[in-house]
Amino acid sequence: MASGDDDDPIIQEFDVYLAKSLAEKLYLFQYPVRPSTMTYNEATHLAAKIKPKQQKVELEVAMDTMSPNYCRSKGEQIALNVDGTSCDESNLYSVKMMDKQTLTSIQATTDTSRYAVAVIRKGEIHLTPLQGILQMRPSFTYLDKADTKHREREAANEAGDSSQDEAEDDVKQITVRFSRPESEQARQRRTQSYEFLQKKQAEEPWVHLHYHGIKDGRSEHERQYLFCQSMGTTESTELVKTPSEYLAMLMPPVTEEKVVKPTGPSNVLSMAQLRTLPLGDQVKTLMKNVKVMPFANLMGLLAPGTDSTSVLRCIQQVAMLVQGNWVVKSDVLYPKTSCSPHSGVPAEVLCRGRDFVMWRFTQERSIMRKEVAAVIKLPPEDVKDFLEQMAVPRVNRGWEFLLPSDHDFVKKHPDVAQRQHMLWLGIQTKLEKVFGFSKEDFAPKKDSQADPVHVSGEQRLKSARDGARDNQASLQRDLDTRRKGSAPKASAGANAAASSSPVCVKQEPLSDSEELMDTSDALPNGSLNGYPGSPAGSDPQNGHAAPRPELQDFVRSTFRRHYVLTFSEVKRHLNLHLASLPPGHCPFGAVPDRALQDAILLSQCRQIPVPFPPQIKMASDEQKVYALWESGETFDRYRQILFELFMKNYRVRKNMVLSRLTQELGDNVTKSDVDRLLKDCCTTQGGMWYLKGTMQS
């Protein structure tokens, strides 16, 4: 010590030795429910066994039935409940009395690297590391055995009564199921489950031990192994650590273990904890548990004073509007990494099937389960699960939507209803492409109980289209007659007719595939959805209106993200873009197919004539494939070579792409370039690569 005043003098010095003879066999037993004055040293130990890998120990200790503290009647009653009146070797208590108890261990800590047992002898300290620290507590498995005996007796009595009433056994139907191949994600979930861990623990066999008392000769012999056995041959080394470093080695700083709070079941909510979450998480949690809810009920579950506009913004992120009520989105219930608990079907397929069920309920109040199953082709358990989430079965009427239509919400929030309607149009287009049906296949039935909101909307749209076709035919005849006279007058007459007519008419036939066409999108002054009807707004080369700059910017940005799109996919993206805009903001409104195609071709894109085989049945829009040809990047040449390959065949192999790129661009082509190219423009199935959108489901 540097200081002369030593107030902490050294009293004695010890040599420290590390004993390793019992390093992997030494356990410390603790008895937390037993007073320290009442040890088990004098008790009779009947049996002992251990599972070394799990560090699980069981001790069977005899009870003093002659003690004045022992209740003989209770002991006899417990033995009777456990073993019954029979006398055989399987009985737990052979003397018809509870004369023993079992102590079972649990691990006090999983990290014993800081613990050791020390013994002192003649100025020496001998340390032996601990293998485990176990807490021994009484086991009550005998109560489970008594309960099992009671249930078996009741079952036997019921079986005896039923056998007297029935003359012959009933024939039971047996359902045979074939297991699917287990995916890696399913295997990980299974191996982490409580049932799997319990099964693994049960598989480890017990190792039976012989107990020796504290005063037994064998115990005294084993205690000698607590001393270092090779003291004479061990070379001592001088400790060069400072006192503070040595203390840090002996007692390292304690790191707090992160305790994972157990999560409750997904259908159990604490409103107090729920309201501590952000508003978006509150809405998502509620919708995920309830699945179908009117907006008024949702506001009632949230904290008083919550802004309804903020709630509307949040609810549209996690739910869709069906008959004025909110139904949780499919991708919220089935994330990408999940699968069906019934059949193992991946989440993407489940979402498509559930979206179809939701879309059908936007058309009708009731649907038939067989019709749904015939379209989505999913296992019956999954179809029933979809229907039970949002409908109830009715006799002779199929499945009826769970809640009555909320007309008040639709009237109060028409902008939200219109936006949801546009979203459903985009989803409908995607579903028609995937499942190969037409909405005319599910035309609403003329029923007095049908929902007037959705049925009348379709009727108004159909009526508007029919009226537009009639007006167009009449206007075309008018224009043909006037063109024989003078062209300017014909244009003026067309403008006058367009401005006087209550329905604006395009200068091309209407088609059902133009999902965005609606008379409500017409603009004044003879313009149709931003496309001028006068000759000043026309393209003299094509003979029809030129695309608006806003539309061309949208098409250009879309192809810079996706590179390859079918024409129906372009229309779907346009629908979704319009639905995401604020209410009342519509830069280009309804877009004719011809104008959309012109915008694509004017955005440095080309149509790829993919040579589909005649046996492949695809919609006409699906066979129109457009690709970004020039974007100003050095990678353009890579894509052009790939597109030229698809002009000769509708599918290619990866080695073919690599060979062609190497032939055209030299040896500078790397594997990462090929991977990026195929990832940007293609999808794969069965070792073959297809342009995006051209592979049939």
From TrEMBL:
Biased composition annotated in UniProt, kind: Basic and acidic residues: 457-469
Residue numbers spanned by region Disordered: 148-171, 443-548
Biased composition (Low complexity): 487-502
Membrane spanning stretches: none
Domain DNA-directed RNA polymerase III subunit RPC5 C-terminal: 444-697
Family matches, as Pfam families: RPC5, RPC5_C
Protein name per Swiss-Prot or TrEMBL: DNA-directed RNA polymerase III subunit RPC5 C-terminal domain-containing protein
Organism: Coilia grayii (Gray's grenadier anchovy)
Lineage of source species: Eukaryota, Metazoa, Chordata, Craniata, Vertebrata
